[in-house]
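Researcher: Here's a chain I'd like modeled. Treat it as a single chain, no partners, no ligands.
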Amino acid sequence: MDTQNPKTIVLTGGSSGIGLATAQLFASKGWKVFSLSRSETPTEGVTHVPCDVTSEESVSGAIQRVLSMTNRIDVALSNAGYGISGPVEFTELADAKQQFDVNFFGAVTFVKAVLPQMRKQQSGTIIFTSSVAAVLSVPYQGFYSASKAAINALALALANEVRPFGIRVSCLMPGDVATGFTAARNKSQCGESVYTRSNSAISTMEKDEQSGMTPHKMARKLWWMANKKSPAPFYIGGTLYQLFGFLDWLLPKRLVNWIEGQMYA
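Model: Modeled as a single isolated chain. C-alpha cells:
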C-alpha cells in the first residue's frame, strides 16, 4: 500500500453486519473508507456520509461529497439491504416493491453514481453483496431471493459493459451470517392459516442465520476479492455453501428445489 496515496473504498450499508466489518477491515489496512448509510456507527478510520440508497438525489449527493474528499474510487461495495418474509400470495405488493427498492434499485442507483468517476480514472472494482438465496431460492423469502437473483443478472450484464473502461464487477454470495439482519427482517404474519409451515420454516431459517458465519469472515472474503486483478463474476461465502452451490450446478434443478422444499417448506 502506498501510504502517500492510499486506495479508496466506498460502501453502502456500513453501519452494521458485513458492511461494518468490511469498513473496519479496510480501514485497518490503511485504505480511505467512506461508509454511506442512514445511521452512523462511529468507527476509527471510517468517514460516514449520510445516505438513503432509495433516493437518487441522496446517493448522488453522497458520492459528490466523497469525491470532494478523495480523487478516486478504487472499490465500490454495494452492500445495503434487508429482508422480508412470508408467502408470495399474501405479501403486500408495496412490501415487495420496497424490497426491490432497497436491495436492487438501491444498488443500481449506487453503481450509476460511482461509474462516471471509475470511467474517468479507467479503473475500479464494483462488488455486490448478493446471497446464496439468489441461486437457491428460499421458500417464504421469495422476494428477497428474487432481489438477489436480479443483482446477479445485473452484475453479469454490467461486467461486459464496463470492461472496456478497466472496471471489474463481482458478487459475493454469502450463506448464513450471524448479524442484525435477522432481527431487522420484516416478517409478515398474513397467510399463516393457509401456509401452515411458513412460521416454522422462517424460524428454522433464522436459527440457521444466528448460528452462521461471522461478518468478519465475509469481510476477509471481500478484501480478497477487492485485491484480485481479475475477479470471477461470483464467489460463494462459506465452505458449506460452496458445496451447496456445486450440488446446484451438478444436480437437476427440479431435485435441488425439491430438497430445498423439504428443508423449509
